[in-house]
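Entry for the shared binder. Reason: the reviewer on the internal report wants the predicted structure included alongside the sequence.
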Amino acid sequence: MLQRTLANTIRAIGVGLHSGEKVELTLSPAPVDSGIVFRRVDLGEGVALKVGPDLVNDTRLSSTLVKDGVRVATIEHLMSAFAGLGIDNVVVDVTASEMPIMDGSAAPFIYLVQQAGVVEQKALKRFVRVRKTVTVEDGDKWVRLTPHEGYKVRLTIEFNHPAFKKSAQSVELDFAHTSYIKEVARARTFGFMHEVEYMRTNNLGQGGSMENAIVLDEYKVLNHDGLRYEDEFVRHKVLDAIGDLYILGYPLIASFEGFKSGHAMNNRLLRALLADSEAYEFVSFDDPDLAPPAFHRLQWSAI
C-alpha cells in the first residue's frame, strides 16, 4: 500500500467556529514522507506546523496546534477527512488562526479532497500497529487503544437530555465493514444554547450558527432539518476521535474505545502510546493483500 497525496491544489473560504474569523484554506500536494503540514501563510514564510501529538497544546473544545506562539485551531475535522481518505502527505495553508468550520462535519473536506483528486506516490505507506493495551483515565472518563488487526472505533457518550436517546449514545464501527464517508463524515458538531454565554465570554463559538452546528435548547434540536443520523451526536464524537488520532501522523492498526472522551484525552492517549516503545511498532505492506481489510474499505471504497 502506497502513500497518497493530492493530484492538484484546491481552495475554499469559510469562517472559524470559535474565532469567527474569515479564513482562506488551500490544500496542496506534498512529497513522500513529508506528512501533513499546516502553514500560517498570513504570518509570512517559514511558519509551518507538522502534525504530531506534542504540538497539540490547546484542547478547549477543539484540537489546536501551537508552536512558538503560532496557532492553528480546530484541525480535527480536516484531519478526520484525511484519515478517511488515506491522505499521508499534504500542505494545508490557512490565512487565520483557525480552520474553517464549513458545515460542522468532515463532508465538505471530503468533497474538496475528491475534487482535487488523490494520487499514489512511490513510497510505502507507514502504519502504527498497537502491540499492547494503553489506557488513559480521568475520573469516570477513559480512552483505550488495544491490539486489533484492523481499525475499529467504539465510543459512548452520556447526556441527560431529551434529544439524546439512550440507545443512540453508543456506537461501534469496524472499518473493515463500514464506509467512513457514508457512516461518519456527515455527522456535525453540536452545542447547547446554555453554553453560548460561557463560550462567548472565553472568546469561543464566535462563528457558530445552525448552519455549521447542531444546536439544542433544554428540550430539543433547534435545526429545522433535524439530524442526519439518529445517533449523529455520538457519530460526530467518532469523527472527532478519528481526526484526533490521525494527528499521530500515521494510520493506526488498533481498536480505539472511549467513554465520555474528548480532544484532551485523545491527545493524552497518543502521548501515552508514544511514551511506551513496547506498545507500538511501525509497519508497511509490500503486498496490499497483507494489509488489514479495514484500510481497503477506509481508503479506497468511496474514491
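Summary line for the report: Residues 297-303 have pLDDT under 50 and may be disordered.
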